[in-house]
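Hello Y.,

Per our agreement to keep a running log of every chain we model this quarter, I'm adding this entry. I've kept the format consistent with earlier entries: sequence first, then predicted structure.
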Amino acid sequence: MAIIYAYQTDQLNSMVPEYYRTNQVRHVFKDCVNGSWVYEEPIQKISTELLSIQKDCAEFGWDGYNAAPISAPTIDYAKSAISQLTNIPQPELAPNADGEISFEWYKAPTQQFLFSIGEKGNISYAGRIGNERIYGNAQYLGTLPGIIEKTLSRIFGLTTPVVVLK
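Predicted structure for the entry above:
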């Protein structure tokens, strides 16, 4: 199930065409009632990439060393978690040697963020906005920790969601 977020900022109207032209946001809709932009990022491409990672990294030592396999529960948690972040550019995905999946966003040297999720729903995150460093651990319990959405919203110049449709 896709989640759609609506945002309204001073910069947003100028950002949307750029995002659309660079194909970072797959679908952009204009809410004619209040003038805010509504983003929807399909997770189909990410789901396909996650399944490819699982297939390529299913065996112990998939990296040529001692990497743990990427398990089906890890993929399930990853799909569920990323489906909640439909309002931002698609992340880079990477398998980790500890059996987790990482989602990485890099906008500039001083604007970057990543989080990884494992087969028990454990989340580790780290990022940088200017001189501020953000990092920690959390448990995925069906929703992402607010710090993840807040940090990504800050990096991409968005404000707190004004509408969340499920």
